[in-house]
Structures are given as C-alpha cells and as structure tokens.
Automatic annotation (TrEMBL), chain A:
Keyword Ribosomal protein: no
InterPro entries: RNA3'-term_phos_cycl_insert, RNA3'_phos_cyclase_dom, RNA3'_phos_cyclase_dom_sf, RNA3'_term_phos_cyc, RNA3'_term_phos_cyc_type_2, RNA3'_term_phos_cycl-like_CS, RNA3'P_cycl/enolpyr_Trfase_a/b, RPTC_insert
Limits of the RNA 3'-terminal phosphate cyclase insert domain: 176-281
Family that this chain belongs to: Belongs to the RNA 3'-terminal cyclase family. Type 2 subfamily.
Protein species of origin: Selaginella moellendorffii (Spikemoss)
Sections of the chain in a coiled coil: none
Subcellular location(s) of the protein: Nucleus, Nucleolus
GO biological process: endonucleolytic cleavage of tricistronic rRNA transcript (SSU-rRNA, 5.8S rRNA, LSU-rRNA)
Superkingdom of this protein's organism: Eukaryota
GO cellular component: nucleolus
Protein name: RNA 3'-terminal phosphate cyclase domain-containing protein
Regions crossing the membrane: none
Keywords for the protein's UniProt record, in alphabetical order: Nucleus, Ribosome biogenesis
Length: 360, 112
C-alpha cells in the first residue's frame, strides 16, 4: 500500500484480520517526508495495547512494516497523544481494537480534546459510544470521562476511556429506520475564556433549532484552573436523538481566523446547528462522520446479515468499504433508495470472533 | 496498470449483468474502480460528488499543502467532513425537513 491516506483504517483492519501491513511512499514527495508525529504516536499506542507486534520504520519514515500482535487491552494505561491531532483521532481506532482485546481496556489519553479536524470528545461520548449498543456491545463498562479540557494549539486535556471486551462476537444489526427527531441535546464548553462564551453559542444554536423543535437543551460546561488545559478555546457539540434511537451529531470548534482572533461564538453556534439540520436532511441512521465506524462494525459481525441506512456516502466511508473488502473479504451490497435520497447497505459479516479473550 | 484497468472493466460489466442500473452505479463507485484513473466518462460523473468531499478537508489546511492535493495517496486521515450547508435561514429549506421531527406531520413521515 502506498501513502499516508487512511492510515488508521489500514492499521485497525490489519490488526483485526491479523494480516501484516506494509505501506510505502509515506509523504515521499512532501517537504516533511515520512510519518507524522501523530501517526508515530498512534503506532506507539497500538504497541501499548497489544503483545508482540512488530513495527519497522525506515530511516526517513516513508516506509512502514507492521506485524500485528495479540490485542491485550489492560487497565490504567496512559498515553500522551501529543498536539498534532485531537484525541478523537486516537479514540476512533482505539474503540474498535479495545472491543476485541483479551482484557477490558481502560486508558488515560492526554492531548487536545476538541479540535476542528477530529470528532471531539463530547461527540464521542454522546454519539459514538451509544452507536455500539446496536451491535450488542455491553453498555456497562463503556465510558468516556473528560477530566480536563485541552484546546488547540497546546492541548493539556485529559480523558479516560473504558472499553469492555466483546464476550464472543458482535451481533448483526438491522438498522434502517432513522425515525423522527424527538430531542436535541448538546454541550457548549469554554475554557480559559469568559464563561459567557458558552451561553452565546447556546443562544445562537437555539435560535436556529427552536424553529423546528422546542425540545432543545444544551449544557454549558465551563472549565477553570487545572482542568482548563493550556490554551483558550470554546466550541459546541450537538446531537439529535430520534424516536428509533439513532443519534446524529454535529460540532463546531473555535478556530483562529486570520489575525489570531477566535471566531465569534454566535457564528459557531449557528454553524453547528445548521450542520446538524444538514445531517438530519441527509438522513441515515448515523451522521456522515460515523459511516466508517458503522461499516466496520457490520463487517465484524458473525456470519449473519446486517442492513443499515446512511445518507450520502462519505469519502471516508467509501474508503472504509474498500479496505474492509481488502482485509476482511466482506463486500457490501449497496442500493440507493431514491425516495429518501439515502443509501441502503447490506452485508454478511465476516464471522469475526474475539479470539483473544480469556476462556474461563 | 492497463491490465488492472481491463480487469476492473470486466468486473464492472459482470456486476452490470445481475443488477439494476441505479444499483450498479454505487457498487461501481465503491468497488468497481478503486483508482480514479479510468477514462470512463460515466464513471467520472458518478464520482464527482465524492471527489469534492475528498478534497474538502484539505482546503482548511495551510496553503502549502495545496500542491500535495494533486496526488491523494497522502490524503489527510480524517473521518469528519465539512458538509455543504444549505441556507437554513430560508423558511422553505426549513419546511423541507419539518416532517423529520416529532413536531411535524407523522402521516407524511411514515410515507417516506
């Protein structure tokens, strides 16, 4: 395989399918060639939760060989995610690997809790984790606690992730009814700025959403002192819950626009609310960010039919489907549903079982 | 490379036999032509949507990386994408999704 694209998908699927991975030409033509800090950090993290994996990187970091080991899991692990990418970047692969370990995983991750590229920890807690229960993951022991916030660029946040192991295998899901939106919840956080910022984001978001639904409640979460990380920042994460238990999410994080001024909280609130409405319009049982996770969960099911509905296929989702075929040999049947503009995907799971779990 | 393309072509043809036309398109986009090197015009039209999304996250990156966009093998690994947002201040656009909420018309929603 070539290039740094979709590094995490390859790493996760390689580990689960126990196939050695070789990637060439990682940013070979770039001014900063080779693996980035955050990718190296992710490799170290995988090393931490597995036994006997082999990682070889050439001098310039443009070539990587990875031989998966046994996923061990473990308690009270600690990992510093650095400031290259948000903690969300690490949480996405970690949650899947954690499910198929020998022991349940509990790990403290330090770094940037909210940034504009990766799903923030709030979205992860309110939208990603509940998704797993549709596939038979025991909900007890599945937890993400935000100990401290860390805004970019310096981070300083801390979260504790707990992932239970899958007893034997996941259960296949037929999950096609997106239902109707019954309530909207959210978290508006601020750190090292005036607590008023969080309220301003809430007001703006409510202004957009209340025209469609009265049941909108957004928590404000202000951090001070040691829990507030090293940089000032604020942001908002919204989730729409439907009558059938689907959760769609959207989020917005203040970025430095040009002259090191943070964006206006009103703009962020409006923007997040509008993205949420957009996700609702696209339809599907998960939002565009969670398509990849949805597909991999379907593919890791026992040999049984899973059927799911998504809105427009995202590029990340498409790539995930290709990688799933390559590593697990699972091909989805993909049918558009013209009446709703959504896409129905059906697959037979790969019969994947948690082989590493301790047999008692 | 040409051999690979030829094979991909055949795969596309084979799946076309069994399935309806609208079905083929999406299957092709995902599995048929993994690399966007095909000169098939239909295919190019099909993937134009996903191509836009492919490049979107990078636009936020610094201008230095624009050159890197050309070859996407080092594309940024990012599951979030910036959605093309409609004008939600427009009342008509809002009415279009009113029935997706419990406050909307349940009968209309069930027909969906």
């Amino acid at each position: 395989m070539k290039g740094a694209q979709h590094f995490r998908q390859r790493l996760v699927l390689s580990t689960l399918s126990n196939t050695a991975l070789r990637i060439d030409d990682i940013r070979a033509d770039s001014e900063a060639p080779g693996l980035c800090d955050f990718e190296a950090s992710l490799l170290r993290l995988v090393e931490k939760i597995s036994n006997g994996c082999g990682i070889e990187i050439n001098e310039t970091g443009t070539k990587l060989r990875y031989k998966p080991g046994i996923l061990a899991g473990g308690r009270n692990l600690v990992h510093d995610c650095g400031t290259g990418r948000g903690i969300g970047y690490f949480l996405e692969p970690l949650i899947i690997l954690g499910l198929f370990g020998k022991k349940p995983l509990s790990i403290t991750l330090r770094g940037i809790t909210n940034d504009s590229r990766d799903p923030c920890v709030d979205t992860f807690r309110t939208a990603t984790l509940p998704m797993l229960k549709h596939f038979g993951v025991p909900i007890e022991g599945l937890e993400l606690k935000v100990v401290a916030r860390g805004a970019p660029p310096l981070g300083g946040g801390e979260v504790v992730l707990k992932v239970p192991i899958v007893p034997k295998s996941l259960t296949a899901a037929t999950w096609v009814d997106e239902g109707m939106v019954k309530r909207i919840r959210g978290v508006s956080y601020s750190t090292r700025v005036s607590p008023h910022m969080a309220n301003r984001m809430v007001d703006a978001a409510r202004g957009v959403l209340n025209r469609l639904l009265p049941d909108v409640y957004i928590f404000t979460d202000h951090y001070t002192g040691s829990e507030s990380g090293k940089s000032p920042g604020y942001g908002i994460s919204l989730v729409a819950e439907t009558t059938t238990g689907c959760i769609l999410s959207s989020e917005c994080v203040a970025m430095h626009s040009g002259a090191s001024e943070l964006q206006l909280p009103e703009d962020l609130g409006t923007q997040a609310a509008m993205s949420l409405l957009q996700e609702i319009r696209l339809g599907g049982v998960v939002d565009s960010t969670h398509q990849g996770l949805l597909f991999i969960l379907c593919a890791l099911c026992p040999e049984d039919v899973s059927k799911v509905r998504v809105g427009k296929l995202s590029s990340y989702g498409i790539k995930m489907l290709q990688h799933i075929k390559e590593f697990l040999g699972v091909q989805f049947s993909i049918k558009p549903d013209p009446a709703t503009g959504t896409v129905l995907l059906t697959c037979v799971g790969s019969g994947f079982q948690n082989l590493y779990r301790k047999v008692s | 490379l040409e051999m690979g393309n030829a094979l991909q072509w055949k795969q596309g043809l084979m799946s076309r036999v069994g399935a309806s036309k609208s079905n083929v398109n999406l299957m092709q986009v995902v599995y048929g032509h993994v690399e966007a090197s095909s000169k098939d015009k239909d295919f190019q039209e099909d993937i134009s949507d996903s191509d836009e999304e492919l490049f979107k996250p990078k636009r936020q990156a610094s201008k230095d990386t624009v050159a890197a966009n050309a070859q996407n093998i080092d594309l940024e690994d990012c599951s979030r994408l910036t959605l093309e947002v409609d004008d939600w201040h427009n009342q008509e656009v809002i009415e279009a999704i009113r029935d997706r909420f419990v406050t909307g018309d349940w009968n209309k929603a069930s027909q969906r």
